[in-house]
Structures are given as C-alpha cells and as structure tokens.
Design goal:
3-stranded antiparallel beta sheet, globular, binds 2-amino-2-deoxy-6-O-phosphono-alpha-D-glucopyranose, alpha/beta, Rossmann fold
Length: 256
Amino acid sequence: MAEIVIVSDMAAAGELAADAILALVAQKPDAVLGLATGSTPLAVYRALAAKGADLSRVRGFALDEYVGLPPGHPESYRAVITRDVVEPLGLDPALVRVPGDRGPLETAGADYERAIIEAGGIDLQILGIGTDGHIGFNEPGSSFASLTRVKTLTAQTREDNARFFDSPADVPVHCITQGLGTIQRARHLVLLAFGEGKAAAIAAAVEGPITASSPGSAIQLHAHVSVLVDEAAASRLANVDYYRHAWANRLPWETL
Ligand code: GLP
C-alpha cells in the first residue's frame, strides 16, 4: 500500500518531500529525479531551494512537455522547469532533460526512454495529478505498460491548463509524456495533491479499482509510493482514519 500522509498545507508537504530528496542526495549526489510541473510540486521546489543544499550533480528528467509551442515559450515545460527548478535549486541545466528535447518527435519517446535507462533509472519521481486522474499527461485510457510517447490532451486537461495561456485555444492539442510504465520503473513515487478539486482523483488513485480509466491508480502497483495530501484533497478517502493512525504510529526509522 502507498503511504498516505495527510498534511496541514502545501508547505508541510513540500518539507516532507524535500527531506526525502535531500536524504536521497546525501546517499547519492548524482541522484536522478523525475521532475513534475504544474502548480502542485512548487511547494517541493521551494522547500528544497530554502535548504540550500548542493544539488549540482543531480540529474533530472521532466515528466512531460507540450508539443507544438514555439521554442522558449514561457509555458513550455522546459521553460517552467528552468524557472521553477533548475535555477532556484542550482541544478546543472546540461543534466536536465525534457521529453521531446532532442531529435525528431517520432523517435523522441524511444530516445528519452534510452536516456533514462542509461542514467540508471529514476530514483525519485515527483507527481501531481490532474482532475481527470491523469499523471504526467497520461490521460484516462492510457496503458499501464506505456512508455514515453506523444499523446492527445483531453478537453478537460486543456480547460484546466488554459489558466496558463492567453486563451483556451492556445493550449496545445498534443503533448509528449513519460508513460505509466516509465513511471512504474522509478524507485520511489511521491504524489502530491492539494484542494477539493483533487479529492475525487486522489480517492480513485488510492482506493479505487486499478483501471486505465483512472491512470493514477497505477500507483497501487508500485512498491514504494508516498501520497502527500492536504485535508481537502483527502476528503473523499474512505480509510482516512487508518492513514492518520499509521502515520502517527510510524516507527522511528520509517521515512517517506
Ligand atoms: C498538468 C501536468 C501534470 C500535473 C497536472 C496537475 O496537466 N502535465 O503533470 O500533475 O497538470 O497540475 P496542477 O498541479 O497545476 O494542478
């Protein structure tokens, strides 16, 4: 089962995730992080930046990217990762890849998978979740075996992400995303969600049936998952009392 931790707010979740990352980097200075974008993981990056650790050898693989934005577009995930992650954390930009960043789009997925394998795999993957249950940009119906590839965004996701663009029509139709199979291969998944709008997606991911209709439910197949949620995002979990009890009674050596 995933470790479900109900936190007071985003900042508390950010602290927990940042501590897990720092513990990893202390063991392995060139650790490989899976980097998510969106508003949710910002708490993690802020907490990490505040700790001021040397992360210059850390390698990163972004989870996903839009297809079709002009190079340098401020809402491309490359630009977001540079702004919110690489610069504040002092990562080496040469060690951070974004899907679709090299070569033709047709072969970009296979190239990205190869690069992840050559890096020795992702040690810790940060994840958010979409209101329709997507992780990365794996929309409902995505195969649990899927690897990095080009996908078509749902109307719901385009609508959710329209807030970052001048108009909803400006949100790209396509994306390139690590697959659910890629995500499964990461050694530790840290999924964060905040707010009432994510409650249904979190309940489906954590307690619902394992189904491609709910891509987040793929986490139930992974041996090491930490789900960090605030009260609102936890509000539709049936076993919430147990999750609180288990976290309150964790053993001294148990971390995320
Ligand atoms: C986007 C990203 C996802 C992210 C999701 C939720 O579609 N591709 O990786 O998890 O949105 O975003 P937010 O954290 O802003 O709610």
